[in-house]
């Protein structure tokens, strides 16, 4: 039974000595300010609204199936993921997305899906 007590004590000592120091934040510490986005005087839409706007624009594009396309927005950068039926739709998705107000760039990760898989 003493062997278990010694092993437990060694484990606790090892954990205490191997953990890095932890420092608490003081109550009067200032939060880190995020840098303001470059703005041309117009209010930029929220990420959620921008993603909705892009999805809506894609759904209105001729011969474009948006059902397997996922849209994420972050500070004007749109990430497209998912799959479409042909390579033309991948290019079309980028072009339509860049035409949406508030979009600064597009990261297109769309792939072509093969029926039956």
Automatic annotation (TrEMBL):
Residues 1-24 form the signal peptide. Pfam families: BON. It comes from the Bacteria. Residues 46-114 form the BON domain. Keywords: Signal. This is BON domain-containing protein. The lineage of its organism: Bacteria, Pseudomonadati, Pseudomonadota, Betaproteobacteria, Burkholderiales.
């Amino acid at each position: 039974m003493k062997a278990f007590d010694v092993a437990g004590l060694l484990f606790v000592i090892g954990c205490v000595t191997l953990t890095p120091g932890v420092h608490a934040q003081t109550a009067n510490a200032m939060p880190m300010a995020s840098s303001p986005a470059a703005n041309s005087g117009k209010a930029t839409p929220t990420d959620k609204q921008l993603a909705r706007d892009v999805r809506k624009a894609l759904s209105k594009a001729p011969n474009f199936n948006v059902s397997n396309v996922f849209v994420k927005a972050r500070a004007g950068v749109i990430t497209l993921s998912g799959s479409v039926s042909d390579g033309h739709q991948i290019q079309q998705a980028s072009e339509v997305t860049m035409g949406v107000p508030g979009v600064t760039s597009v990261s297109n990760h769309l792939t072509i899906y093969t029926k039956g898989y």
